[in-house]
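Whiteboard transcription, Tuesday session. T.W. wrote the C-alpha cells on the left side:
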C-alpha cells in the first residue's frame, strides 16, 4: 500500500469535568487525529491552541502520539474549554468558552500543507469550511463530520466538496435514507449515518450498507463518533469495502467508549 498521510484541520479544546476533578485534551479533529495515528497512518493537526496550561498540555500529548504538530499554532489567550459532566455514563454539556478558537484563521501555508496530504478531515465546528473548495480542487480527499447539525446551512454549502460525509441521527428511518441519498446526489461520494448504540448506515450512490456495534460495557461516550470516523477513513485509505470500513469504525468506537479516559487504550485494527 502507498504510504498515506492525513491532516486533521479544525478545532481543539479541553473537556473539564469539575465534579469529577478531571480534564482531557480533545476536540473533533484532535480525537480523530489521535485514533488515525494509532491505526498506523501518519497524521498532522492543523489548528490553533492557547498559550495556557491546557494548550501546552495539548501540544505535549500530541507530540507523545508522534502526531505532526508543525502547523499547530500557539496563540496568546485561553484554550477552548467545554465544561462537562457524566451522568449514568452519558456525557452532558455545560458552558463552552471558545478562547482562541473564536478568531482562528488558517493561512495560505496551512492550506498548502493540508493539500499535501491524501486526506483532510474537518468538522462543522472547525472554522475551515471556506477552504474546502481549494483543498478539493487539489485532489485531496475530504471527510467531514457534520455531527447532528443536519439542517445547518453549512451542510448544503460544503457538501459539493466533501468525499465522505458523516452525520449523527437518533434512529434509522426512511427519512434518514433519503437524507443520505440527497447528500450523495449533491456531491458526496459516500454519506454515513451513525445511530449511537444502534450501529451505522452508509449510502455509496449504488446501495445501502449497514453495520451494528461490537458488544462492550459503556463507560463514557465522549469520542465515539470521532473514533468511528477515524476507523472508517482508515479503511478507506487502505482500499477496503464500505462494509469493512464500517466494521473498523465500530471496532475503534467500541474500545473508546469502554473506558473513561478517551486516549487510554489503543484502538483495535480489523484484520486485512
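and on the right, the sequence the group agreed on:
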Amino acid at each position: 500500500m502507498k504510504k498515506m498521510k492525513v491532516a486533521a484541520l479544525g478545532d481543539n479544546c479541553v473537556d473539564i469535568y469539575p465534579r469529577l476533578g478531571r480534564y482531557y485534551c480533545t476536540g473533533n479533529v484532535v480525537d480523530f487525529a489521535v485514533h488515525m495515528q494509532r491505526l498506523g497512518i501518519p497524521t498532522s493537526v492543523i489548528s490553533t491552541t492557547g498559550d495556557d496550561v491546557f494548550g501546552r498540555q495539548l501540544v505535549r500529548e500530541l507530540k507523545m502520539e508522534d502526531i505532526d504538530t508543525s502547523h499547530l499554532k500557539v496563540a496568546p489567550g485561553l484554550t477552548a474549554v467545554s465544561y462537562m459532566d457524566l451522568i449514568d455514563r452519558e456525557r452532558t454539556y455545560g458552558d463552552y468558552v471558545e478562547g482562541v478558537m473564536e478568531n482562528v484563521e488558517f493561512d495560505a501555508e496551512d492550506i498548502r500543507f493540508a493539500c499535501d496530504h491524501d486526506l483532510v478531515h474537518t468538522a462543522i465546528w472547525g472554522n475551515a469550511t471556506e477552504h474546502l473548495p481549494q483543498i478539493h480542487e487539489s485532489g485531496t480527499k475530504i471527510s467531514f463530520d457534520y455531527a447532528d447539525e443536519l439542517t445547518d446551512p453549512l451542510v448544503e454549502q460544503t457538501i459539493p466538496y466533501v468525499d465522505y460525509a458523516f452525520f449523527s441521527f437518533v434512529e434509522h428511518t426512511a427519512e434518514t435514507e433519503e437524507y443520505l441519498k440527497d447528500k450523495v446526489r449533491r456531491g458526496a461520494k459516500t454519506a454515513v449515518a451513525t445511530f449511537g448504540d444502534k450501529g451505522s448506515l452508509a449510502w455509496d450512490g449504488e446501495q445501502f450498507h449497514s453495520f451494528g456495534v461490537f458488544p462492550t460495557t459503556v463507560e463514557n461516550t465522549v469520542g465515539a463518533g470521532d473514533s468511528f470516523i477515524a476507523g472508517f477513513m482508515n479503511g478507506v485509505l487502505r482500499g477496503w469495502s464500505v462494509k469493512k470500513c464500517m466494521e473498523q469504525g465500530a471496532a475503534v468506537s467500541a474500545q473508546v467508549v469502554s473506558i473513561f479516559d478517551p486516549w487510554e487504550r489503543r484502538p483495535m485494527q480489523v484484520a486485512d
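Someone added at the bottom: The CA atoms of residues 68 and 151 lie 34 Å apart.
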